[in-house]
Amino acid sequence: MPTVSVGRDRLFEALRRTYTQEEFEDLCFQFGIELDDVTTEKAIIRKEKHLEEEEPSDDEEVIYKIEVPANRYDLLCLEGLSQSLRIFAGLEPIPTYTVANISKESMLKMHVKPETSQIRPYVVCAVLRGVTFNEARYNSFIDLQDRLHQNICRRRTLVAIGTHDLDTIEGPFTYEALAPKDINFTPLKQTRNFSADELMEFYKKDLKLKKFLHIIEGSPVYPVIYDQKRTVLSLPPIINGAHSAITLKTKNVFIECTATDLTKANIVLNTMVTMFSMYCERKFEVEPVEVSYTDGRSYVSPDLSFYQMEVPVSYITKLIGVSLPAHESARLLNKMQLHAKHSISDKNEASFTISVPPTRSDILHPCDVAEDVAIAYGYNEIPKITFPSVKPQLLNKFSDLIREEIATVGYTEVLTWILCSSKEISTMLNREEDKTAVINGNPRSADFEVVRTTLMPGILKTVGHNKDHPKPIKIFEVGDVVLLDEKKDVGASNRRKLAALHCGSTSGFELIHGLVDRIMEVLGTPFVSPGDKTGYYIESSNEPEYLKGRQAHIIFKGEKIGTFGIVHPQVLHNFDIPDPCSFVEIDIEKFL
Amino acid sequence: MAEETVLGHLEHNQEIPDSGVFSQEKGINHDELVNVIKSLNGFGLVIAADIKREKWLLSDEAQSYVKYGSAEVLIFEAVPAEGTAKAKLQDIVKSKLPADLDDNTKSLIYDKGWAQAMKNKWIGLADSQVSQKVEHVEDRVKDLLIQIQNGEAVGAKDIDALKRRRLISLQIWKGYSVKKGPNYAPKRRKAVTDLVRDHLQRDEWKDIEFKEYNFLAKGQPTEGGCLHPLYKVKLQIQMIFLQMGFEEMPTNNYVESSFWNFDALFQPQQHPARDSHDTFFLKVPSTTNSLPEEYVERVKTVHESGGYGSRGYGYDWKREEANKNLLRTHTTAVSTRMLYALAQGPFTPKRYYSIDRVFRNEAVDRTHLAEFHQIEGLICDRGLSLGHLRGVLEDFFSRIGMSKLKFKPAYNPYTEPSMEIFSYHEGLKKWVEIGNSGMFRPEMLRPMGLPEDVQVIAWGLSLERPTMILYGIDNIRDLFGHKVDLSLTKRNPICRLGLN
Prior knowledge:
Structural class of chain A: alpha+beta
Strand content of chain B: 15-25%
Structural class of chain B: alpha+beta
Strand order of the largest sheet of chain B: 9-12-13-17-16-15-14
GO biological process, one term (chain B): translation
Radius of gyration of chain B: 53 Å
Radius of gyration of chain A: 41 Å
Shape of chain A: elongated
GO cellular component, one term (chain B): cytoplasm
Helix content of chain A: 25-40%
Distance between the termini of chain B: 68 Å
Organism (chain B): Salvia divinorum
Helix content of chain B: 25-40%
Largest sheet of chain A: 11 strands, mixed
Main location (chain B): cytoplasm
Number of strands of chain A: 28
Largest sheet of chain B: 7 strands, mixed
Oligomer: heterodimer
Distance between the termini of chain A: 43 Å
Catalytic activity (chain B): tRNA(Phe) + L-phenylalanine + ATP = L-phenylalanyl-tRNA(Phe) + AMP + diphosphate + H(+)
Shape of chain B: rod-shaped
């Protein structure tokens, strides 16, 4: 996106008020431009020269670098930017640009020679009369040409702008294409005469101009504009003549735009003249020039007429999703520099006739009009309309993510039964009777007496029945246990647990410890010193189902969330397991 | 053996008062016993207290004196009563000494005995004649040495004299007294680091003792593979799209023609994005083989002179530009193909998404790569509005943890209206741009053949940007590409996007 640098104080003066940076940023955001950087002239120079950063002194002028949309050429200078914002703020009506009403006879003329079709076939021209420049306006005038050249002109390939002091030249003018050696003139900023082919060589050393040479280099003819006295106005798209250079004192400006794309040439010319006609004696009035071709074609430029577009009122409101009365839409359109005339169409449909000013070449289709209504209404004020959609069960999706992580470090998932016998959750685990368990009233067999309170028996039974499986056996399960819970209507509630086991020629205690660390890592939990409540740590424990000296609690945010250890040999014996095992069980709901 | 003897003794006795005595009683080498006591003491099975004793040790010379008598006595006795020539005395002495002594020892005894007997004035030398000077001598040195050997007390003066003659030297003896320690057991348990199968099979597990375990250190790192963080995020975002009712578009086609990448999107041929500065154009294959001709004609017309209510761009549209092949600069090229295909049949509403690779001819820096992943979502239906776009964006972004959004007007050649999406970043305390959105232009949709009242709302963002925000990564090269640190990928936690 193009960036425009403007002096903050000049901008605020033009906006007739000052803003805090935040207020100005908000205004930009609403309007669709962006305050990209706040700097000073000196800081820009320092940066270009790669000098050290210095403290800015108060007397330096603050520069706002503002990003503007790539299709809004009218925002590429302070004049257009501030005018658009003033109109947006309702401070000013949309200007009416007029072409001076002068007779064809007294109109300046540009004759186009047929050879130009070989290299750069189009030209459009205009005159600004009675311009008052000062240093700031003059710089802005030059900068706008640069920015247009850089953007819409595609580095002068599509369009090149030449501006001249009309009082130093005399019409009618001719736009010709001649052999390079036949073109001779003193170019801008030089003091001697060059032939065009000599000039091309000369500019190969010029950092700024060398990148434009390719546009005409190698062509048998170069485009050139002469006045009546054969004074060279310019060698487009490379350089203007020194003779007609504009200065601060220039009053009457002749503008020519040569091009390979006539539509863009007109946009460029319109942008130049609409922006700077505000400094003319007759504000917003531009003097036309007649361009005629040898084949008889001719036109008068610039064309500052308003483009008319029919837009149904309902099209706008449907597209933005806000039902606005027609007069409100019209008011919003005015803020965006679009005139809207309400009418009833032939199909008995309420419609706007939109008048698009010459500054708004970006308006191509009614959708562009609708967007402007939406911007003026405020994007962030448009009510949201939601679509039906579904949300996942957090606990289950979270369990799935953990399951994948445990499988990727080499543990195989098992899926065991919720129901078990009461001794499997008590005596067989060296524990007392489990008073937290839900008890089945009518078990068909002892295997279904209770609802498990731990994943341990299911996992141990799996090992007991897989004695012939090659060692080590590394298995895990993520599943629910049920505990009595007075807070629940039914008196019991599920808890999501994770358990894993290692069984081999050694118990693999350190491996299970390592798995605990890995689980904590994938849950984004840091390992901390005992007592620290920001992560997890391990604390020696004394639980009957594990061997003394090789068991520990996992403490997360100060709370015990699980235990791991070497399964007690008596417990192994109870489950008919001949090999040592280490086991871990964690409550994962604490990590939600 | 020694360990069991010590532990066994203490099972029935208070203590072992003296390890020296104990070693003699039990016939155990004292050094071996000392090692066992030290080890048991270290594990707290016994408590050992030091015992220190001094003891005089006889030299080899002194031991021969104990056996044969002191050298001076042997000399004295060898001197005949009548005396003898000094020159002959050595031979006489040697002949009288026991035959089992070698000649060197005999010479030594002679030298020492001569000097001592002379000093004692037991014998005298006159005119080379040696004679006894006293009647009778007592072998006190031998008696003292025997007393010392037997551990009997000897006067300090005598000890001093013997020490000076280097017949005795002091030795310090160390031993222990031993009592039961806090961890006393009649049989020591094995200290192990882990329970092993043997412990279970031999029923030894009751006797084992674990070495101290350091729970302040981490366990043994797990082994196994890890998925790439970016694709973990991708998977979650895919899940979000599915929950919102979107189906995935096929995006496995990196090579695209300018037509589908730009022209069909109403992107003018002079648009800066179509510069070689921004797009990779292909040398091989340089152009597309075919395009849908009727559609191309409609696209050309809408660019040149508009239609469907549009003014068009008013320029000469060139087929050669459209034919140029490139690496797709956005997945919207795929969306365009999908919408075109959709328009060929009777209209059905669709919700599409894709997450895949796109390419930009950009200088690589902290925030830009020449290739990255684009996330794109679109809804194609009748009667869609900006309100719907806001609604779907709020839904989508709140699911990836960005619930505070605001929208800025923006320009994009193929969407109108266009909205840039900003999200408030709680960490950075500012609004950051996270993506772009808009409604596809009629100049894009109508030439495809989609009905007039059909709108498409769409949005796009990079996969990398939200991932970098999520994981606090500020250099894109640390996240994606061959310079990524593998340990970062391994440490990366699960991606919880879509779970809030």
